[in-house]
Amino acid sequence: MMSTNSKNVLVVSVGFLCQFTAYGGLQSLQKGRESVELLFSFGGAAMISRNSKNVLVVSVGFLSLFTAYGGLQSLQSSLNAEDGMGVASLSVIYASIIVSSMFLPPIMIKNLGCKWTIVAGMACYVSYSFGNLYPGWYTLIPTSVILGLGGSPLWSAKCTYLTISGNLQGAEEGKKGSDVINHYFGIFFFIFQSSAVWGNLMSSLIFQQDTNIAFIPDEQLRTCGAANCGLNITVNGTATRPAQKLVETLVGCYIGVGLLAMLIVAVFLDNVDREQSSQFRGNREPFCQTFLATFRLLKDWRLLTLIPLTMYSGFEQSFLSGEYTKNYVTCALGIHYVGYVMMCFGASNSLFSILFGRLARYTGRAALFSIAALANFACIIALLFWRPHPDDLAVFFVFPALWGMADAIWQTQTNALYGILFSRDKEAAFANYRMWESLGFVIAFAYSTFICLEYKLYILLAVLLLTAITYPIVEYHEHKHPTPPVEEGSNLTHSQKNIQRDEGKIVCQTRI
After folding, report:
1. 8 Å CB contact between 474 and 418
2. What is the rounded distance in angstroms from the CA atom of residue 18 to the CA atom of residue 208?
3. 113: left (phi > 0), else alpha (psi -120 to 50), else beta?
4. Measured between alpha carbons, how far is 302 from 482 in angstroms, rounded to an integer?
5. Any idea of the CA torsion for 48, 45, 176, 280, to the nearest 10 degrees?
6. Residue 76: which residues within 8 A CB-CB, separation 6 or more?
7. How far apart are CA 190 and CA 241, in angstroms?
8. Chunked in runs of 10, what are the mean pLDDT values of the chain (512 residues)?
9. What's the helix, strand, coil split of the chain in %, to 5?
């Protein structure tokens, strides 16, 4: 065991590391602005294109933001287990995302533009970290609502931004826009999904210093996994909440990296849709038309057919972060292992995201979706019969590694598919994506404390099989009748169809 003095030194060191990381980031912003402007002032001589640079900026911003949120989400079912408060807050988050998906994304993106919608959404996420400083119903629930209202505009703006950038870059290089979009989403999720590594590493290193780690008796191990119902895991010793001082240290670090994410995007991201936003504000469409944009797209049978696939994304993510961490990891190993297990998921997800983003142009989406479905199917069947025990330590990491590989496909390919099929209505399409995915989260978190783990696995399996039936219908139709690409700038507002875009019209926000 580590001595008390060594523990105190480590905790203080982590606190100073987070403090000076934020301070150093602020101090370096001015130099960074100059460096980025210098790099991209050489035009054709630049190391990477401006569109690729913007993708990297968005990716790093989301990496920093979700280092905080992802770490908190993984711990909610174990850290704030009293009366199911943590899971309830997650349910409220995704219920709020459903509400915001109905009207906020088109309104915010068309008025603020993608860049400032992303910044505003990030601020909503940071508020949830503040709520976790002193968690209670009066702090978690209001900040969960705020996060949810900003969540859908944030993700819709990100997806719209990557789709615009991919189409612009494809036009410049004479490549298919869909191939570049796939590549950009692969880059994004490669960087973004690694946030699970850093966020959970922070939580594991800090919580490892807790001296109140309980021994796990054999009687308790027999209640882990799908063997028993799994509704009363929170009463055992392994779910003991770490010391409040450690929790405050961790949440303080999360707040710092969340604020840093907002600064990165605000300073370095270009406003690629500035002209469309200005034009929209000058020639506003009727509010009802903008408000109902998300629902009007439901007339498209392809979107309706993709609902099971989109909802499954919510089901499978919520299962790993809510059920697997509580009923397998926390129950058999202890809460201090949750971070390490989720790091394995994040690393796998990150690596396979960039790999599948590149492979998609050679294998097609259908082959990759088949791999993801088979991987999840095998994991679900195995989890039904596996009885977790500390002696099987490696097995605890095999499941999140396979799950991360599958999730990399679900995320990269589903996002790219929406961008390709509904390129003329990107804002409304990605709002629908976030709405139906969030509905999957809400349903899964809502029944989390009411039904047994075995039945949760059966529900997950049923949604997966339904997805395997409905998705191929859309893919076959797209194969026979490919959706024609649109010239970027023609789909944001009807009055912008003839705008000629070039690099000079993109407003670089890194200029001094």
Report:
1. no
2. 18
3. left
4. 13
5. 80
6. 86, 87, 89, 90, 322
7. 32
8. 47 45 44 44 56 92 91 74 78 88 82 91 93 86 93 89 88 82 86 83 77 68 76 48 79 92 93 65 55 80 95 93 85 82 88 83 89 96 92 93 94 88 82 88 84 92 96 92 67 39 38 28
9. 80, 0, 20
Residues near 481 by beta carbon (within 8 Å), at least 6 away in sequence: none
CA atoms of 25 and 257, how far apart (whole Å):
10
**Whole-angstrom distance, CA of residue 143 vs CA of residue 201:** 24
Pseudo-torsion of CA 364, 178, 61, 30, nearest 10°?
A: 140
- Residue 194 and residue 342: Cα distance in Å, rounded? 10
Start-to-end CA span in the chain (Å)? 52
| In contact, 269 and 61? CB cutoff 8 Å | yes
Question: Cβ distance 496 to 256 under 8 Å?
Answer: no
Give the whole-angstrom CA distance, residue 342 versus residue 198.
10
At 237 the pLDDT is: 43
How buried is residue 450: exposed, middle or buried, by Cβ count under 10 Å (0-12/13-18/19+)?
exposed
